[in-house]
Amino acid sequence: MSQQHSKKSESDVLMDIQGLKKFFPVKKGLSRLEKGSTHVKAVNDVSFQLRDGETFALVGESGCGKSTTGRTILRLTNPTEGKAIYKGQDIFQFNRKELKAMRKDLQMVFQDPYSSLNPRKRIGQILEEPLIIHKIGTKEERTEKVMEIMEKVGLQMEHYYRYPHEFSGGQRQRIGLARALVVDPKVVICDEPVSALDVSIQSQVINLLQRLQRELKLTYLFISHDLSVVRHISDRIAVMYLGKVMEEAATDQLFENPLHPYTQALLSSVPLPDPKARKERMILKGDIPSPLNPPSGCVFHTRCPHAIEVCKQTAPVMRVAGDGHKVSCHLLD
């Protein structure tokens, strides 16, 4: 974990996400599968804060709503409910003109570096496009800025004239990162930025992200399902399950003392690097419920080995367990 930012305080809050909900309407034919359900509850009342200069990670199984959370914060999809306070203003209330100006400060690096790049454009054109959209600099200044950011992310000058298909996966992700950074953002949302890469390339990209964070004073919202990657790069972690945050804590706290049964199960599934080492695994039974019709009470109770009667009836509230460690679980009562 980056020790540089581990002591951030509440006064350093850069962005405050409050009660975020994103429900997707479903077609009538599909809704018959889940009687009475008309919406997929992808994100259901999620709240957290991003602090200046830190890496905050969202982790969880596929389909838990972490990527939708990132995309909704950026207004790539509009929220159903909630607030995203940035510099004292609610992003969710911005009109088109205000949204365009805001996007200069908030950028995103996507999971698939190939599908997020226009195959018909040269890399130089792709990287200059954000500068043109935001009317930054003259043509010569834009070219100079692009060359500068390409060097920062480890690309060569001759790459300026090539097309996306001429690059490896790791190089494409560097291009995606360069495109996000070329407008000098404050916050970068990294949506599974290394999951499509080989392990050896993953470490290179993670080290690059950390170096750029120090040099450019960036704040990351890092979305991933890989706990080993998250442990290495993040300062704080929020664990999501079925559209809700189950637990939030500093990285060291979460790995040393997980309080929620779901977090405990996730961490027990991480393989140990020592082939002779043994540890007790916590195996979750059953499948993840449908977000069309999530369980009443605690959404995790259908798979929780410690569930009690109140878990089935009443949704737990997020409470502080000590030193910023938050957990949403009745077992703490």
What topology does this entry show?
Blueprint: E1 13-25, H1 28-31, E2 39-51, E3 55-59, H2 66-73, E4 81-86, E5 89-90, H3 96-102, E6 106-109, H4 123-133, H5 139-152, H6 169-181, E7 187-191, H7 199-216, E8 219-224, H8 227-233, E9 236-241, E10 244-250, H9 251-256, H10 261-268, H11 309-313, E11 319-322, E12 325-327
Parallel strand pairs: 3-8, 3-9, 6-7, 7-8
Antiparallel strand pairs: 1-2, 1-4, 4-5, 9-10, 10-12, 11-12
Question: Keywords, please?
Answer:
11 helices; alpha/beta; 333 residues; 12 strands; 2 domains; 30% helix; Rossmann fold; single chain; eight-stranded mixed β-sheet
Runs in which pLDDT lies below 50 for 5 or more consecutive residues are 1-7
What percent of residues are in strands? Answer: 15-25%
From the N-terminal CA to the C-terminal CA, the straight-line distance is: 31 Å
- Give a quick account of the main beta sheet: strands, pairing sense, barrel closure: 8 strands, mixed
Please provide the ordered H/E string of secondary-structure elements: EHEEHEEHEHHHEHEHEEHHHEE
Q: What sort of overall outline do the alpha carbons produce when their principal axes are compared? A: globular
Structural class determined from secondary elements:
alpha/beta
Tell me which CATH architecture of the largest domain applies here: 3-Layer(aba) Sandwich
Number of extended strands: 12
CATH class of the largest domain: Alpha Beta
Rg (CA only): 21 Å
Could you tell me the CATH topology label of the largest domain.
Rossmann fold
Helix tally? Answer: 11
Percent range of helical residues:
25-40%
Mean pLDDT: 89
The strand line-up of the biggest sheet is 6-7-8-3-9-10-12-11
Q: Find the CATH superfamily of the largest domain.
A: P-loop containing nucleotide triphosphate hydrolases
Structural domains: how many: 2
